[in-house]
Each structure stands twice: as C-alpha cells, then as structure tokens.
Amino acid sequence: MTTLLLKLYLPTAIVFFALDLLWLGVVAKGFYRREMGDLLAPEVRWIPALAFYAIYLAALLVLAVLPAVERGSLPRALALGALFGLAAYAAYDLTSLALIRGFPTRVVLVDLVWGTVLSATVSGAAYAMAGWMR
C-alpha cells in the first residue's frame, strides 16, 4: 500500500489543487471577498497553503482512499472522503466561528459543504486512478 500511496500522491494532488483553485479563484471568489472582507489577506500566503495541501492529501489518501481500495469499494472511498472532508473543514471553520470575532456563519456553512464535496470527489478520483495503476 505504501507504493500505491506514493504513486497516487501527485495525481491526486493535481486533481485536488485544480478543483480547489477553481472554487477559490473563480466560482466562489466573490463570495469569500464579500463575506470575509478585511479578514482575508490581500495575497495568498503560499507556504502555509501548500503545507495544508500536502498534509491534507496524505491524510485523505491514508484514511479514505487506501481503505476503500483494500475493500474494492468506490462507495466507501466517497463516504470516507466525504466524512474526512467534513471533519477537517469543520475543525477550521467551527473553531474560527468560536474564536474569531465576526467570522461569518455563511462562510462556515459553504465551507463545510465544499470540503465534503471536494474530498469525496477527490477520493473517488483517486480510487479510480488506483484501479488504473494496478
């Protein structure tokens, strides 16, 4: 499984990064600017962003995709990916809502849905790629 993890990492990262950049940079860009206003940094700080992607993808593969591959179950990949995405995005958004003055509730709700959908989608894609690699 370690070999599969290493083979899947880069293509999964490309899928995740492409979808998330499309979401953040095009589809929901105006939403985040409007809702978060001055809470947003004027420019993306790429080192922490890339660190998040690196850690998140490794965890997504280990906790959602590889267990689904072991069972030969796409529905398992989708469900575990969705659960992982919900939990991870909830950790950030609900903590921010609890601790940051003025953190918008609408951002929390949209982010929770996005994290769930994104992670399920990427897990499904990684599961499919694992099938092609075997």
Assembly state: single chain
* Unreliable stretches covering 5 or more consecutive residues: none
The chain-level mean pLDDT equals 95
Largest sheet: none
The helix-and-strand class reads: mainly alpha
Between the first and last Cα atoms, what is the distance in angstroms? 11 Å
Q: What proportion strand?
A: under 5%
Percent of residues in helices comes to over 70%
> What is the H/E string?
HHHHH
Number of H- or I-type helical stretches: 5
Commentary on this structure:
This protein is mainly alpha-helical. It contains 5 helices and no strands. The protein has helices spanning 2-27, 29-36, 46-71, 74-99, 105-133. Helix 1 (2-27) packs antiparallel against helix 5 and helix 4 packs antiparallel against helix 5. The radius of gyration is 16 Å and the shape is elongated.
List keywords for this structure.
mainly alpha
In short:
With 134 residues, this protein is mainly alpha-helical. 86% of the residues lie in helices and 0% in strands.
Please describe the topology of this protein.
Layout lengths: L1 H26 L1 H8 L9 H26 L2 H26 L5 H29 L1
Helix pairs in contact: 1-2, 1-3, 1-5, 3-4, 3-5, 4-5
